[in-house]
Each structure stands twice: as C-alpha cells, then as structure tokens.
Amino acid sequence: MDETPLLELRNLNKYYEDGYHAVKDVSLKIGSGKLVGLIGPNGCGKTSMMRCINKMHKLSSGDVLLDGKSILSCSYADIAKKVSNVPAELRGSFGLTVYETVMLGRYPHLRNLWWETDHDEGAVDDALEKFGVRHLKDRQLNMLSSGERQRVLIAKAYVQQPRLMLVDEPTSHLDMKYKLEVMEYLTAMVEKDMTVLVAEHDISLMARYCQQCIIMKAGEIVTIGDPKEVITEELIQDVYEVSASVGFDRDGALFVLPKKYSSRRV
Q1: 50, 63, 3, 1: which is closest to 22 by C-alpha?
Q2: pLDDT (tens digit, 9 = 90+) per residue, 108-158?
Q3: What is the DSSP string of the chain?
Q4: What is the predicted pLDDT for the residue at 264?
Q5: Pairing of strands 242-248, 254-261
Q6: Engineered SS bond to 207: which of 3, 74, 101, 227, CB 3.0-4.6 Å?
Q7: pLDDT score, position 146
Q8: What is the structure's pLDDT at 92?
Q9: What is the mean pLDDT of the chain?
Q10: What are phi and psi of 227, to 5 degrees?
Q11: pLDDT for the residue 134
Q12: Cα separation of 190 and 39, whole Å?
C-alpha cells in the first residue's frame, strides 16, 4: 500500500480577480523528510501556489491535501499547526523584538490566549540558540541585517513545529556566505520528520541542497525530479529562454552558468 504523502495537490487552479490564471491544473505529491526546491522565472506561479497550500489564497478549483486531509475542511488554526510560512519580504515588524517575533510561532499551539507556558518559552529559547540569534533576542527586528532577519523568520517558523515549511525566496537579499548558511539550516531541519518547500531563483543553490526540484513555467509544472537529472541546458532554454552551460564541479555538485538571453521574440 502506498504511503499517504505529506502534501498532495490535485488539479489545483488559481485565478485572480482580473482573470489572470496563475496556477494551471497542478497536481503533485511530496513525502515527508525532504528539502524540495520550487524553481521557475518570475511570474510562473511559485508564490501563488504556496499561498494556496497554506490557505492564504482561496483555491479557484482543485484541492490541497495535508496528510491526506483536504485543507478545504480545515480551519486556519488547524493548518497553522501543520504548515509554517517564511515570507520573501517582511512587511512591517511593528517594533517587535527578536524574542517576541519568534514567540509568534508558538501561537497556534497556545492553550491560553494571554500568556505562554514554560514549554513555549523553552521552545523559543532553543530556537534562538539553534539559529544563532540568542544574542539578538532584545533587538528590534527592523534593526537587524538581512541575514540575521532571515534566520529569525526561520526560527519563528521552526517553533511552530510544522510538518511542512514553505520558504519563499530565502536568499534573495543575502550575500554568498549567508545564502549557504540559510540552506544549511534548512537542510538540518529536514533530517527530522519535516519537509521544507523552498521557492528560489538560484538554480545552482537548489541543485546543491535539494533532493527534489519542481520546475514551473507559466503556471504549470514542467518536470519534477532529482535536480542532477532534470536540470539540463535544454530545460534552462525552455523555461528561462536563456542559453546556459550546465555542468558538475569536482565535488559532483551541479552548477548553471547563464550565457545569453535568447528570447524567441527577437
């Protein structure tokens, strides 16, 4: 008997009010304990699909199942106990400190609306230590560097104790060192019973760290598989309209070197 996937999308469609068809009849299955890369050009539907998964956006048609249960029958609180979200951009921190921000991740589990338990405080303290931001706990979030802020947001999502973490463009504003650091943190988390789905533009970074990649173009799935098998020069040309060299370094890690934009419209 096949094991129930952690996440399943069944013929998912998302239309916006202006008629734009952002996600087109997408079906896929993802198991637990995986780091999965979601790759594609701007506007291909990555963020829209992720926002449908955690019910931030209403599904136009189709279904999303978590552990075999449709999110259509789940409350937002129930979903928050299984799915956490790390956004691409922080839209206002309202003067919150690092400690207060990470504690927000415990709210789906709070039994009392007005105060946290020793267990909640312990979980936050452990996360601050794990992600290297304990020394920043009293600093306001808007006073941190991009790399520090990203680690805090991942810590907040981590203390939510999700089965599935959705991470949208975690390295877009980070330098080389912090890109690798963030990916190392995400890799360490999936060694437990958690899957991390990462939407990211850095294809080489995804190929290095992810066990599986989902490639999207114009709202549709192009292919899904081992990045070392599915990421080819032909795929880069088709999805990005870019001529590129795809190869492997001396350690066996795949890399993509863009060479020339080759739009068919020219």
Answers
A1: 50
A2: 887 665 567 888 899 999 999 988 899 999 999 989 988 888 889 999 999
A3: -PPPPSEEEEEEEEE-TT--EEEEEEEEEE-SS-EEEEE--TTSSHHHHHHHHTTSS--SEEEEEETTEEGGGS-HHHHHTTEEEE-SS----TT-BHHHHHHGGGGGG-SSSS---HHHHHHHHHHHHHTT-GGGTTSBGGGS-HHHHHHHHHHHHHHT--SEEEEESTTTT--HHHHHHHHHHHHHHTTSS-EEEEE-S-HHHHHHH-SEEEEEETTEEEEEE-HHHH--HHHHHHHH-EEEEEEE-TTS-EEEEEEEE--TT-
A4: 54
A5: antiparallel
A6: 227
A7: 83
A8: 64
A9: 90
A10: -55, -30
A11: 94
A12: 19
The values of phi and psi at residue 237, to 5°, are: -65, -45
**Interatomic CA distance for residues 178 and 156, integer angstroms:** 18
| Nearest one of 158, 156, 147, 168 to 96, comparing CA atoms | 156
203-220 per-residue burial string, b: 16 or more CB within 10 A, e: under 16? bbbbbbbbebbbbbbebe
Instruction: Fill in the amino acid letter for 161.
Output: Q
Question: Would you list the domain boundaries of the chain?
Answer: 1-82+162-231, 94-161
- Burial (CB count within 10 angstroms: exposed 0-12, middle 13-18, buried 19+), residue 238: middle
Walking along the chain (266 residues) 10 residues at a time, the average pLDDT comes out as: 86 96 97 95 95 95 96 92 86 82 88 73 93 93 88 92 93 83 87 87 93 97 96 96 94 91 60
Instruction: Give 65's contacts (C-beta < 8 A, 6+ positions apart).
Output: 5, 7, 8, 9, 10, 71
Specify the CATH class of 1-82+162-231 in words.
alpha beta
The first and second tokens of residue 262, run together, are 């080759």
Please return the burial class of 87, using the count of CB atoms within 10 Å of its CB with bins 0-12, 13-18 and 19+.
Answer: middle
User: Strand 7-15 relative to strand 21-30: parallel, antiparallel, unpaired?
Assistant: antiparallel
pLDDT on residue 1: 47
